[in-house]
Amino acid sequence: MDSIPLSTLFITLIILLIASAYFSGSETGLLSANRYRMRFLSEKGHKGAQKAEKLLKKTDILLSLILICNNLVNISASAIATIIGMRLYGDIGVAIATGVLTFVMLIFSEIFPKTIAAIYPERVAFVSSHLLTILLKLFSPIVFVMNLIIRSLMKIVGVKNEVKGNSLSTEELRAIVNQSGKFIPSAHQEMLLSILDLEKVTVDDIMVPRNDIGGIDIEDDWKSIMRQLNHAAHSKVVLYKESMDENVLGILRVREAFRLMLDKNEFTKETLIRAVDEAYFIPEGTPLNAQLLNFRSRKERIGLVVDEYGDIKGLVTLEDILEEIVGEFTTSTAPSINEEVTPQSDGSMIIEGSANIRDLNKLFDWHLDTEDARTFNGLILEHLEEIPDEGTECEIDGLKITILEVADNMVKQAKVEKLPPANEQN
Question: Whole-model pTM above 0.70?
Answer without folding.
Answer: no
